[in-house]
């Protein structure tokens, strides 16, 4: 049946990173896609040009973000009204935000136009972090400490994009995990304190982070609970094997990691020293033992999705032998 609003032409504001994913989606290609979809751009803003703050602040209706995770985060962090529908066109390398929510590029003419007119959205509760007495800062993938900081700062010999970038990132993380010294900290989850030692600590708000790493099905973008995921010193070898396990770096082949997430409404970490990562940047050069408080923003973003498409989950752990036998 034809949609009752099929004759309408969606009017959107477009935010575009023309260099994402190696520049496979330059402005002309994206303009041609939107024209073929019957979508009218009321404003066009390159996220690499001046004026981004003013352009986002002026947005009062549906918007399209074309780029990778950094581009999506840059625009969402400035968005004044989270009730506005946001369509993500994942043109970057990892595209963790889009993959976790089921957002994708249109596979057939009219797909994007149909999604925008239908108004089907999924909620995304971004993370919030407060370091010491500083005001809360939003984040869109993860807060990290330990080996992930070292891996993030390893640079390839030449610029990489797509699968090559993801493969390098996983190899860098494996190298960092191999020599990472343990971190010691106190983690309080809804008031329950645990002493922890870890070679990597992640506080994610997505099941996917970094170079396409799946952290497990317990972590959901539509959940309002915070998560702490640790790789302990005893799991060093298992974590390195986990990074090397997929035959290809496709999302569907990524197995569940050797960690058990701790989940609660609010997580407080104290006693950390050294640098902290927020998404792809440094939050601080040295946490210096300050209190780190993480929760999820109660007001979600509304991400436009194909109602027939589910988020990419990765490969679930194999059931234990008894469960296999009983089935």
Automatic annotation (TrEMBL):
What Gene3D superfamilies does the record point to?
Probable inorganic polyphosphate/atp-NAD kinase, domain 1
Pfam families assigned to the protein according to its UniProt record, in alphabetical order: DAGK_cat
Q: Which InterPro entries match?
A: ATP-NAD_kinase_N (IPR017438), Diacylglycerol_kinase_cat_dom (IPR001206), NAD/diacylglycerol_kinase_sf (IPR016064)
Region annotation Disordered: where it falls in the sequence: 308-327
All residue ranges annotated as the DAGKc domain in the record: 7-133
> Pro residues: which segments have biased composition?
317-327
Q: Which domain of life is it from?
A: Bacteria
Name of this chain's protein: DAGKc domain-containing protein
Native source organism of the sequence:
Tistrella bauzanensis
